[in-house]
Design brief:
0% helix
């Protein structure tokens, strides 16, 4: 079992940046970890993933703006979000091994 805790969300103006963190309760450095988001009235969608060997993949809507990374020693996975847009507003979740965190709210608004 893995407990995941997301943090780092908040209110930011368009064009701003946020860095989300996902802390795992045990080492996950060999695992596939994904960041997902769910906006009001929309289905949860995958934003970015990182594999055990460090390969990454991104949704087209965030390519070039978001970066997923991991700190294996701390069992942490991060999502650096730059050039944020109002349409990035959502609750962001991390997921691995079938477990989900509770989510962190990101609101992009002027």
């Amino acid at each position: 079992q893995v407990r995941l805790v997301e943090s780092g969300g908040g209110l930011v103006q368009p064009g701003g940046s946020l860095r989300l963190s996902c802390a795992a309760s045990r080492p996950i450095f060999r695992e596939y970890v994904g960041w997902y988001r769910e906006a009001p009235g929309k289905q949860r969608e995958q934003v970015a993933v990182i594999t055990g060997d460090g390969s990454t993949n991104y949704a087209d809507s965030v390519k070039g703006r978001f970066t997923i990374s991991r700190e294996n020693a701390e069992s942490m996975v991060f999502l650096q979000m730059n050039s944020l847009r109002p349409e990035d507003t959502a609750v962001y979740y991390c997921q691995t091994l079938g477990y989900w965190g509770q989510g962190t709210q990101v609101t992009v608004s002027s």
